[in-house]
Amino acid sequence: MTASIVAEAVHSDLSEPRQRFVQCASPAGLHRIAYTEWGDPANPRVLLCVHGLTRSGRDFDKLAQAFARDYRVVCPDVVGRGLSDWLADPRYYGVPQYVADMVTLIARLNVETVDWFGTSMGGLIGMALGGLPNTPIRKMLLNDVGPHIEPVALQRIGEYLGKPARFASLDEGVRHAAALAASFGPLTDEEWASINTPLLHERDGAWGFRYDPGIATPFTSATDEQNAAGEAFLWRSLASIRTPVLVVRGESSDLLSRETVAQMVEKGQAVTSAEIPGAGHAPAFLVEDQIAIARGFFLGDDASGA
Question: Mean pLDDT, to the nearest integer, of 255-282?
């Protein structure tokens, strides 16, 4: 086999996902986290992509393919979602547990630092981890999220989170998930199918969401005082992050306001911002102009792929 054929085979492999698992712990016991890995598994440069509240790591397939030549891209299913286990006690679904799981995952990857792409909940996890002393996060992109979440978005999420949903077909489930996530932007039917199919599975003759309905337990039981304390913690975390942070906001987001973005830039040490037209909460990063924003931030002068 010639060198050119070998190189082509290696490049082809980089664009294909590998399914992996890592064992983590909560106060209630052990659980497995699933993650999809792209790119050279020996590459010390890792991009960790963490999804939103009811989503999965497969939201990032297109983004991962775009970065696979430059990074080892790792896209976990946060516990209770996708192919990951459900927690034995739903009270532990929250940022502290998610941060602990991500630390375990990073240890499994055997790298000292990671770059972080966090959408919505994934950004909250990133802010919490990024604000800790000796954080492994080198650069962080926060996709349509900040320490303050607008009440109207919390109300919208509460209307569907954890509610029973059964569908007669996969297509019906994909369309329902697309309706819930309509503010992602004007996606094609094929794009909706690609990111929503991993959210669903068939059981007892019907289709339903994979995520544990128990993730709603801490969401619905949180008091105003607990929410205020959580927000204050995230503002402190953001203010302590010394590494570059890019906040990306969807133009019509109901979760992240322009006022909050301005405060994040003001209070952060190295925070910049960008706004994506035609998207709400949260930009899907499936199209080239959005992916180019991420490449420009993480790769700088290398963003062209040269």
Answer: 97
